[in-house]
Design goal:
By secondary structure, the protein is an alpha/beta fold. The protein is built from 27 helices and 32 strands. Helix 2 crosses helix 19 (458-468) and helix 4 (130-140) runs parallel beside helix 13 (284-298). Mean pLDDT is 93; it is low at 794-802.
Length: 864
């Protein structure tokens, strides 16, 4: 099997891959990879289901028509060259992705910053970890992650801040669970919402949205009061003084606050893990520094089992940071605004026109696209028409841009549909290069499948455009040569006193590059155990760390009578970003199959919302229609919605259309966690569930579509019932001539329609004036079966009891109803559930959810 790396989150799990038939793939966890040691999460386990060729872009397209590579790349080069000649280098831009390989990233940044002469090259990593970069630079003098994953297994206390680790980084959660079992590690989760991770913690602190600075200032003041400060950091006194003066509310009760402060103060081996709940804020950089202050003040950094730890959301967000993927950086952690750094890179690249100032950061970049300052744009492996805040405005900006090129694996994304030129990109498992995970481990990604048609790797496209623009030094024969150049440049950075130096690999041969084992930088013996700062050497001018005086501020989007709810956004366990990959795996679509909003019971009652009805969430910038989940996981006046759905899968579920484009002034990262919104019923009068072997093409209203084992399925709702349900069904499935079986319950307004071709069921539609209650996986299983299968009772109340139910364990296909049955049969703990059903015995990502189910199911019995 071929060793490679998983393309999902920043954990950077190693995988073993082998081709399996026509574009199929066998996937196993790599037991020798230091990040995961053989473990995989549900998404990684299902990777083999995501590499099919259906829907792939296989040839370049210009204005929707097939073209060859020379035509496509020449057109991009010509339009960029003409735009620069007429309007200057600031009129063009690249927008990149943390799913690009490091070699791809390097070429893009060299082209823009060294040859075009503009720093208008930013990345979707700006949306997830830019505040960490800014906080690291302020405190350490460089964007340096101090710790390593092993610290999670050596800590006595792990504090998770704004991180649903069990769902978003499941393999790290598995490592923490194993440590808790062996050494009794305590886990504290700081999150306004009672996530699955919070439910499994020893202490959950349901902090007020945006109150992280206030909490960690309380901690710093407590550390000072207990005389636990050991640091000689610059700014220590000012930071402590600011912490003591901070009167911001945390939203926590006195007992919980006191317990947290005492636990942190008396535990030396503390790791504080933070993620999007910290970064995605208008004060994200201050939040990062408030956390760093506590570790710096006590010396709990750079030693085994202690330190602050940022976990990234994308597979190569770290690699992008290493090559200067952000608009305010240079490669190898050099500073674009430092003249000596800029001159060194210019000399190494032999750059004819070096960028001299930071470029536009993501939100500002697309504002510039919208107002015409940026006239030519190349978007690579990302979907900003969905993922940026004020997504409707971003979509309109891209649509109005004079020239847009998009590189992707498919043309069926919200962004790709707006492109003038579409470039077919090689996908994961089809391209080679390197990625860097959250603990600075660089791993090889290796091709195991041939790209379909004319698809090519990103570095090849970028180099081709550079050459057609007349630029030299873009003639690499392959990714190994790009890696060598990047490594050689890192030696110059090291000589300038920077942290990133892998120059020991600068002479690596192609063969050794192919065989390269995972390694963590720095590769020198100067850093104990691969950690930074245990030797108290920092990258500031005086070599000392800097503590930053920060003061808490509320979220910028203030609640008003018109917008009285606080929207929090996030991810779900089995989906990834905008589902271009995970949406192709049927089992990953079974867990949570449509966009939803979590609403507290008191708010649901007050707003007239019932469970599984539909709600409109609206802000000053846009709106979304989402399925209502009534739950006390969220607090009153707070709601939660995931970010995965798009115009391709659920047009009204694009939650970033609702998020306002408020950003951190230091990092440029948007505040995605605290939008002010209204909430009201979406008054649907007709609901339906559809499944089919072929197409499902809704036209208007609410709909959410997903891939299944037998084709497609969709949830639908309309404000008015169609006059002719059968005509609606024929149009929905594009089956005008199919045989029909139809049953109606006039008293309840329910209708069931089966469409049949050649004696086989090819489509089913179940409709009612209220949310349809049927056994969905039983209906889906009838697609393709003989005509008699169409006799399924469509809307019988309680029919789900005979069904597997909503999926809980994606690895084993075990649903909620089956778990409840096992519990009734006496399986009353995780081990017994695993033995009875297999659930939770593979990747373990579902274990917190199963544990919560067990606790809930046990309560009625305990009361009896």
């Amino acid at each position: 099997m071929i060793r490679s790396t998983c393309p999902y989150c920043g954990v950077g799990c190693g995988v073993l891959l082998a081709p399996a038939g026509e574009s199929g793939l066998i996937v196993r966890g790599d037991p020798d990879h230091p990040a995961n040691r053989g473990r995989l999460c549900s998404k990684g386990t299902a990777l083999g289901e995501t590499v099919g060729r259906s829907g792939r872009l296989t040839t370049p397209e210009i204005h929707g028509r097939p073209a060859d590579w020379d035509q496509a790349l020449s057109l991009i080069a010509t339009r960029f060259r003409q735009t620069i000649a007429a309007h200057g280098p600031e009129s063009v831009a690249l927008y990149l992705s943390g799913q690009m390989l490091t070699e791809d990233y390097y070429v893009a940044n060299k082209l823009m910053k060294g040859f075009i002469g503009s720093a208008n090259v930013d990345t979707n990593s700006r949306l997830c970890m830019a505040s960490t970069v800014a906080g690291h630079v302020r405190a350490f003098g460089a964007d340096t992650v101090p710790g390593i994953y092993d610290d999670l297994e050596e800590a006595d206390l792990i504090v998770l801040v704004g991180s649903n680790l069990a769902w978003c980084h499941p393999v790290l959660w598995q490592r923490i669970e194993a440590a808790r079992a062996t050494r009794g590690t305590k886990i504290v989760v700081i999150d306004p919402r009672r996530s699955v991770t919070a439910g499994a913690a020893d202490l959950h602190l349901p902090i007020a949205p945006g109150a992280d600075v206030a909490l960690f200032n309380r901690l710093l003041a407590a550390l000072a009061d207990r005389e636990l400060l050991t640091s000689d950091a610059t700014g220590l006194e000012a930071a402590v003084q600011s912490a003591r003066a901070d009167s911001g509310e945390t939203g926590l009760g006195p007992a919980d606050l006191a317990r947290f402060l005492d636990l942190w103060c008396r535990t030396e081996k503390v790791v504080t893990v933070f993620s999007q709940g910290v970064n995605q804020s208008s004060s994200g950089t201050d939040k990062v520094n408030a956390i760093l202050n506590c570790h710096l003040a006590t010396g709990r950094i750079g030693r085994p089992g202690m330190g602050p730890f940022s976990v990234t959301g994308q597979p190569n967000a770290m690699g992008g940071r290493e090559v200067g993927g952000l608009a305010n950086q240079l490669a190898c952690h050099l500073s674009l605004e430092n003249p000596a750094h800029r001159a060194a890179v210019a000399q190494f690249w032999r750059a004819p026109r070096m960028a001299e100032r930071p470029g536009l950061r993501a939100v500002d970049l697309f504002r510039a696209v919208g107002d015409g300052r940026v006239k030519a744009l190349w978007i690579i492996h990302t979907n900003p028409a969905v993922t940026l805040p004020e997504a409707d405005a971003v979509r309109a900006a891209i649509a109005a841009c004079e020239f847009v090129a998009v590189s992707d694996v498919t043309g069926a994304t919200d962004t790709a549909r707006l492109a003038h030129v579409l470039l077919p990109a090689a996908a994961w498992a089809e391209k080679s290069g390197t990625v860097t995970n959250s603990d600075r481990t660089i791993s090889r990604q290796r091709a195991v499948l041939a790209p379909p048609g004319a698809a090519r790797p990103d570095w090849w496209m970028l180099a081709g455009v550079a050459q057609r623009m007349g630029f030299d030094r873009f003639d690499w024969p392959g990714p190994a040569a790009i890696f060598r150049e990047h490594a050689a440049l890192s030696g110059i950075a090291g000589a300038l006193g920077r942290d990133f130096d892998i120059s020991g690999k600068a002479a690596i041969s192609d063969a050794d590059y192919d065989r390269m084992e995972p390694f963590r930088w720095p590769s020198t013996a100067l850093r104990q155990g691969g950690r930074f700062f245990g030797d108290s050497r920092y990258f500031t001018p005086d070599g000392r760390p800097r503590m930053i005086a920060v003061t808490s501020t509320p979220p910028q989007a203030m609640l008003t009578p018109e917008h009285p709810f606080r929207l929090n956004t996030g991810r779900i366990r089995d989906q990834w970003h905008t589902m271009t990959r995970t949406g192709q795996a049927p089992r990953l679509n079974q867990h949570l199959g449509e966009p939803f909003v979590e609403v507290h019971p008191s708010d649901a009652l007050r707003s007239g919302l019932s469970p599984w009805s539909l709600a409109e969430v609206r802000s000053a910038s846009g709106s979304a229609v989402l399925r209502v989940v009534v739950t006390d996981r969220v607090r009153p006046r707070q709601i939660f919605a995931p970010m995965h759905w798009t115009g391709e899968t659920a047009p009204t579920g694009r939650i970033d259309a609702v998020v306002s484009a408020v950003t951190d002034p230091l990092s440029g990262q948007p505040e995605s966690k605290a939008a002010a919104v209204s909430l009201r019923p979406w008054p649907a009068r007709w609901f339906a569930f559809a499944c089919a072997a072929g197409s499902i093409a809704p036209d208007g209203g609410y709909w959410a579509r997903r891939v299944t084992e037998t084709g497609l399925a969709a949830e639908l709702a309309l404000l008015e019932a169609p006059d002719d349900p059968l005509a609606f069904a024929r149009a929905l499935f594009d089956l005008p001539d199919a045989e029909v079986m139809q049953t109606e319950d006039a008293a309840r307004g329910q209708v069931s329609i089966a469409l049949i071709l050649s004696g086989r069921v090819v489509a089913l539609l179940f409709a009612a004036p209220s949310p349809v209650m049927i056994a969905r996986d039983a209906a889906i299983a009838r697609i393709g079966m003989p005509r008699g299968a169409a006799t399924l009772a469509p809307c019988a109340g309680g029919s789900d009891r005979a069904d597997n139910g909503p999926l809980v364990c994606a690895c084993t296909g075990v649903g909620r109803n089956r778990l409840q049955s096992a519990f009734r049969d006496g399986a009353c703990d995780l081990a017994a559930i695993g033995q009875a059903t297999g659930a939770g015995t593979n990747c373990g990502a579902c274990r917190p959810e199963i544990a919560a189910m067990l606790a809930q199911l046990a309560r009625p019995q305990a009361a009896e």
